[in-house]
Amino acid sequence: MTDLLWAHWKTRTLLAAVDLGVFTALAKEPLPAPALCRRVGLHPRPAADFLDALVALGLLRRSGDVYANTPEAAEYLDAGKPVSYLGDSFLARCAGMADDLVGVLRTGEAKGDARDGRDFYAGQYASSDSVRAFQRDMTALSIGSAHALAERFPWDRYRTLVDVGCAQGALPGWLLRHHPHLTAVGFDLPPAREGFEEYVEALGVADRLEFRPGDFFSDPLPSADVIVFGHILHNWGEEEKLRLLEKAYAALPPGGAVLVYETLIDDDRRSNAVGLILSLIMHAEVPGGFDYTGAQCREWLRRTGFRDIYVEHLDGPESMVVGVK
Predict the structure, then answer these.
(1) What is the DSSP string of 191-246?
(2) Quick check: keyword DNA repair in the entry (predicted)?
(3) Nearest Cα residue to 205 out of 186, 192, 224, 228
(4) Among 181, 234, 283, 313, which one carries the catalytic annotation?
C-alpha cells in the first residue's frame, strides 16, 4: 500500500529531473552537486534531497558529492540521444492520462472527440508536431520489447518482416541492427514517413528498411515472412482485431508468422497491473479499444487460421503471441 501511495511522487520526481535536464547535463561527465545545480538551475536548499531521491530511484549514482547517470538513464533520458531518448512527451502523457479516469469509469465513454480508432489516429496525425510526438511515444512504449524480441524470436528462420503501424520504426530498426540478414517494411499512414526515415537513418539501417504508406484497414498489408502488430490491436474492438489478423494471414506465405506484442493482461487477470491500467487508458482514449489476455489473443489467432500458437514474456509487463500460417 505504501508503494502505491508514493508512486505518484516517484513519477513527479522523474518528470522534474527530465524537465530540468539533469540526465542530459550529466551525459558528458559526472558532476559535483554544486556544478550540477548551476548547470540545471537547481536551488541548493532542496538539491541534496532531490538528487539523492534520484539515486534512491536508481536513476543516478553518487560517489561522495559527485553524481552520474546510471546506464539506463544515460541510454533513455539523455536528450542528446534522439534514437533512444524516451523524452518528456511520453512521460508527461502517461502522467496526464488518468486526469479524467473517474469520468470515463462513470460514463464508459472515451474522453476525447474520437468516435472510433480511425478518428483517434486522425487526431494524432493531424500536424507535423503531433505526429512526431506520437511517434516518440510509441518508441518509448516499444523499445524494451524491441530489444527483447531481437533475442527471443527465431529470426534465423526468416528473412523479411513488416511492422504494421510502425511509427518511428524503432521495432524493425533495432531488429535489423541485431540481425544483418533481415530486411523490413514499415507500414503506416503517410504523415509518419518523415519521422520514420530520420529515425532509421540515425540507426544506420535505412538501406534495409523501407517505409510504405497505407491504411491497414483500407489497403492490403505488404507481404513478408513475419508480420508484426506492436501495440496496435489494443486500439480496436474485437471485430477489428479479427479483421487485422485475417489480413495478416492473407499476406503471409505458408510457414510465415504473425507476431503480436502488447502489455498482455495475465490470464487470471490478477497480476499484470500495467496491462490492466493500459486497458483503462484505451477505454479513455479510443472508443472500442481494450487490452486483452494471452488466452484471448491465442483464440483470435486460432479463429483466423493460425497454428502452433504460443505466448512468451518479453520485457517488464510486455509479452508476445506468435502464430504460424
Answers:
(1) GGHHHHHHHHHHHT-TTTEEEEE--TTTSPPPP-SEEEEES-GGGS-HHHHHHHHH
(2) no
(3) 186
(4) 234
pTM of the model: 0.82
**Could you tell me the fold of the domain covering 112-324?**
Rossmann fold (3.40.50)
Residue 100 pLDDT: 65
Report the candidate in 159, 296, 307 with the shortest Cα–Cα distance to residue 234. 296
d(CA 97, CA 100): 7
| Residue 8 falls in the annotated catalytic set | no
Question: Grid coordinates in use for 11?
Answer: 513519477
Residue 107 has a pLDDT of 75
pLDDT, tens only, 74-125: 988 888 887 677 765 555 565 555 556 667 666 777 766 556 656 677 777 7
Report the Cα–Cα distance between both ends of the chain, in Å, rounded.
Answer: 46
Q: Which residues contact 2 (CB under 8 A, 6 or more apart)?
A: none
Could you tell me the three cell numbers for 273? 497491473
Q: In angstroms, rounded to a whole number, what is the distance separating the alpha carbons of residues 243 and 288?
A: 14
C-alpha cell at 139: 518508441
Q: What is the largest CA-CA distance in the chain?
A: 66
Q: Which CATH architecture has domain 2-76?
A: Orthogonal Bundle (1.10)
Q: Can you tell me the mean pLDDT for 134-140?
A: 81
Which three cell numbers mark 172?
524493425
The CA distance from 294 to 322, in Å, is 10
Q: How far apart are CA 78 and CA 57, in angstroms?
A: 17
pLDDT band at 222 (very low <50, low <70, confident <90, very high): very high
Q: Which residue has the cell 518528470?
A: 15
